[in-house]
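Sequence only, no structure available. Ideas?
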Amino acid sequence: MAEALEKWPVNYLAQLCPRVYMIIEEINRRAILALRAKHIPESTIQNVSIIKDGMVRMCNMAVTVAFSVNGVASLHTQILERETFHDFYTLTPEKFNNKTNGITHRRFLLAANPGLASLLEEKIGDNFITDPVNGFKRFLDFSRTIPTL
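Reply:
I predicted one. Tokens follow.
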């Protein structure tokens, strides 16, 4: 995922948006000072630095200033924690959390296929809307259910 992390050349930002670049420099300076005060190794500081090798690392800036960093799925969050932002995660694990975006399959079913939702309600009751769908187990033999679809 490292190739997807946006970087901007320092000279572009400094020339096109000088005040914004000054603010980025100040955020980076303060972040580095705070890490050094905690005796964080220089190699880690370089990994999480916003500015490195003439580039402004936008994701590093986002994680540095963010209150919360979330993946859009459990697997994505694990990749962020273990690989992409591992040093950030080691320094501030409380920032990282998972918030799966989207709609639950049950809510989608109610909106997208009300006929099937009605059949399910008829067969197993309306608990499937809010509870796990354990009621389906007794219908594993579809030979009698499929014709009603």
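The mean pLDDT is 88.
Hope that gets you unstuck.
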